[in-house]
Amino acid sequence: MHTFILRRGKEESLKRFHPWVFSGAIDHSDGTPEEGELVRVVSHKGEFLGYGHCQIGSIAVRMLTFRDEPVDRKFWQRRLSEAFRLRRALHLTGRTDNDIYRLVHGEGDRLPGLVIDVYGRTAVLQAHSVGMHVCREALADALIEASEGLIDNVYYKSETTLPYKADLHQENGFLRGNDEGNIATENGLRFHIDWLRGQKTGFFVDQRENRALLEHYAQGRCVLNMFCYTGGFSVYAMRGGAQLVHSVDSSAKAIELTRANAELNFPGDSRHEAYAADAFKFLEEAGSNYDLIVLDPPAFAKHRDALRNALKGYTRLNAMAFRKIKPGGILFTFSCSQAVNKDQFRLAVFTAAAQSGRHVRILHQLHQPADHPINIYHPEGEYLKGLVLEVE
């Protein structure tokens, strides 16, 4: 095992349990570890700080433990058992009306570079680091064991999330089991989950509680769900008694799944229509017929270099919605851009409201649910921001 020796003073963040070692903090190493290799990290004085996965880039090590302990099968099983314990405490497991939840949320579950979402008896494992990719087989075994009978199948979906420079040529596929079914249940509603070709792990698990809140506001309203993906907000709005629901996404595949999910839950219901269209163009051409609008776009800023343009995008999008929404309407607006903090997003929405000249009140401030926990030592893990606004 290779050792990384830090520069003087750079050990302080690790002593505060921050799980990243940046490349600029490293003085030297005792060799040249391969990307994904488990490495030992010590201070400039040789004081042990922990073990982590080495990677190429500005983040040089993702720390797995700050203790001098083996990172082996038992280690993975312990961490995954801890993750299951939390989801049980959140009452997300063992329910007949809900079998969709996030089991592992990277640094929030002390497993940086790893995401695991559960759909029924299938877990979709996604690696965001080469280190987790290297450990995928051991993780699959530990996952089955830690689940205590809850998980039969493990699907690996990392083609688009692994660092492209690693040149791994990874293909998606089942590591354990094989599940031909793709329907799972969230709060009593059923959804087709496209873990084979869909975005993320096949579904946006992080909006579960916000979808339930929207259902509360939907009664009798005309709903427009922008960037609908597979129609989660749309289906909840229909159950909430919406008068009509229009779903919009630029992806024809997403619209196909949205229609399938609406039909799965409300067969033959004429209240729902779906459109494959550019969101900005659709909003520009839409009439002022909607009194509940959902704006849940993909990340406008995947890194800080794109922050300025992202904030302009959020301002423009929300300004269009403010101009279109009926008086007394409700706007659910979100940002999932990690590079955009809560204050920046709120300022962008404030600017949009001012541009529109509408009177706007904040009813709710939204965030990611508890199965997407934020490590208190890693505030960067807070990524989902949302506002529910009433527009006069």
Top keywords for this entry?
single chain, 392 residues, alpha/beta, Archaeosine Trna-guanine Transglycosylase, Chain: A, domain 4, Transcription Regulator spoIIAA, Rossmann fold, seven-stranded mixed sheet, six-stranded mixed sheet, 10 helices, 27% strand
Number of strand elements = 20
Q: Look at the structure and give the mean pLDDT.
A: 94
Low-confidence stretches: none
- Rg, Å, rounded: 22 Å
Shape designation: globular
Which percent band covers the strand fraction? Answer: 25-35%
For the biggest sheet, the summary is: 7 strands, mixed
Q: Total number of helical segments?
A: 10
The SS-based structural class is alpha/beta
Question: Which CATH class of the largest domain applies here?
Answer: Alpha Beta
Written as H for each helix and E for each strand, in order along the chain, the element string is EHEEEEEHEEEHHEEEEHEHEHEHEHEHEE
Strand order of the largest sheet: 16-15-14-17-18-20-19
CATH architectural type of the largest domain: 3-Layer(aba) Sandwich
Count of domain modules? 3
Q: Quick one: CATH superfamily of the largest domain?
A: Vaccinia Virus protein VP39
The CATH topology name of the largest domain reads Rossmann fold
Q: In whole angstroms, how far apart are the ends? A: 63 Å
Relative helix content: 25-40%
